[in-house]
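[[Per-residue structure]]
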Amino acid sequence: LSLVGSEMCIRDSWYSMKEIMEYLGVSRDTVLDWIERREMPAAKIGRLWKFKISEVDAWMKSGVAADK
């Protein structure tokens, strides 16, 4: 596998709330606020939130997280 290929596999896997908090360096409350108020891409499976890193990265780059 090339580095690009393996990176794509990692980027397309689902991340947990804890992993996304660590990845972004923000609190759980911030993530929940972004989901509710700023349409952060996330999927709720039962009581668990799951995130695709590629979608979260695109959302962050769009500037929506920084909007007030």
Remarks:
- The chain has a mean pLDDT of 86.
- The two ends are 42 Å apart (CA to CA).
